[in-house]
Design goal:
Blueprint lengths: L6 E2 L2 E2 L9 E10 L5 E4 L6 E4 L7 H7 L7 E6 L13 E5 L12 E6 L2 E10 L3 E5 L9 E11 L29 E3 L6 E3 L1
Length: 195
């Protein structure tokens, strides 16, 4: 018996994208103002996410919900819907001695921030101060994402089996380190793996 377009190793589903289902898309992200292609799945793996899990821009997720396998559409993404609006408060002056001496306007620099790495663009530089823009390079840029829905599947599930439960106060308690053994199944091939 042949499998339908919506069948997968995870089960038989409708061919329509819906909240709670995993989708795969071919895409091309283009600037509205210049037509410049910002990103594309061409030559790469398709974009994959579970609808409703907030894994992608909300406007993209909303645009995909209701699409059927094989359907293509253009989804508009305003700056606010994607990388955020450009914020003047994210442009900061730093003492020149705190910035690499060979930094030049237009160059992207990486800094260690409180929540991990941060990127900033050098706007201008004097002998005493360097102006850095910490906005995302695409902040405030209106774009359009052309998408084609390739597949709709039930997302992989994580099954948890508790072999030795604690009481929550003596063991385990908040802050305790636990050792966990797990086994899994690769979504693409169905091959099993073990920790």
């Amino acid at each position: 018996m042949a499998m339908s377009a919506a069948a997968s190793a995870h089960g038989e589903f409708s061919s329509t994208a819906a909240v709670g289902l995993e989708v795969k898309l071919q895409f091309k992200l283009t600037r509205i103002d210049s037509g410049e292609v910002l990103d594309s799945s061409e030559g790469k793996a398709p974009l994959q996410f579970v609808c409703g899990n907030n894994e992608v821009f909300p406007a993209l997720e909303e645009g995909v919900i209701g699409m059927t396998i094989g359907e293509s559409k253009d989804i508009p993404l305003s700056g606010a819907d994607s990388y955020g609006e450009w914020d003047n408060e994210r442009v900061l002056g730093f003492p020149a001695e705190k910035v690499p001496p060979d930094a030049v306007p237009g160059q992207m620099l990486r800094f260690d921030g409180p929540n991990g790495p941060m990127m900033a663009k050098v706007l201008n530089k004097t002998e005493t101060e360097v102006m850095l823009d910490f906005n995302h390079p695409l902040a405030g840029v209106d774009a359009s994402m052309a998408v084609t829905l390739l597949s709709v599947n039930k997302p992989p599930q994580v099954d948890i089996e508790i072999l030795s439960p604690g009481d929550g106060s003596t063991y385990p308690k908040a802050g305790d380190k636990l050792t966990m053994h797990y086994t899994g199944t690769l979504a693409e091939t169905g091959a099993k793996f073990d920790s």
